[in-house]
Amino acid sequence: MTSEGIGKASGKIILMGEHSVVYGEPAIAFPFIGTQVIAKVHETDENFLSSAYHHGLLATVPVSLINIQQLTARLQQELQTSNFHLTIESTIPPERGMGSSAAVAVAITRAFFDWKKMILTKDSLLEYVDFAEQIAHGNPSGIDAAATSDTQPIFFKRDTERLSFPLNIDAYLLVADTGILGQTRAAVASVANLFENNPQETKQVMQKLGNLTKKAKQAIMDNQPELLGRLMTLAQAELKALTVSTPSLDHYIDLVLSQGALGAKLTGGGRGGCFLVLTKTREQAEKIAAILLEENIKNTWIQGLGVYQYV
Ligand code: MEV
Asked: Which tens digit of pLDDT belongs to each residue from 79-95?
């Protein structure tokens, strides 16, 4: 086994439905092709990881990379590979709600199967990624795995629905990175606590988020950007009620709304990370991006949704 295996995956954006998707409500997400991770694997003497966060033996990775250590151990055992050198290169900012950990797991699994020249079914891929995500995030809904491994937007319901969904609307999405590390694991755990301590109220918030997602799906199908924007801002209020927003995210969201954005909300786990701004035109998205960059926003991406090409 002297050849090299290569696997790729993109980041993801959850347009609507983060957190409530963990509790069975629907979500809309898409692979964010502006960001990518590439994993390469080849034979070597001892299992070795070369990445931005660890360059050394896999046996000595920091706790934050235990998901990779465990996933590769399982792949090595089940695919009966030799010892390996794994290289990971990524442009997905980590811990910003863009699905970095799921995308890395997708790329690694694909690389190992490519290396062994074995066919990897979608279900098997998602099973491996779910295994790694359980370690990284505790209770993953599976949406990150589904979106980072796909080429099309999806309408997703935990364990029941994974449908391609044409996210085609006359609007632009500005993705803004606060540069603050989000805390998906902690955010998911604290929402679980809310559920335990205040089940009635928390269930209502989840249902509201689920209804907003269903209405957003309809707004997209009816090409109603203004309505979609309002629904996003309403979702932000519910996410705030779940305690996963932060004063800094709230500040940026108020700012972009005051600049005429159609709507705005955090995306992914929250507690930092990225937020989304919906605008009617590219010019407006560019103007708001310039304002945000003046206000300490680390990075921005602009995605046209009307002519969206996912592959
Ligand atoms: C994280 O990207 C999305 C969450 O809903 C967690 C999950 O669905 O696994 C916060």
From this structure: 999 999 999 999 999 88
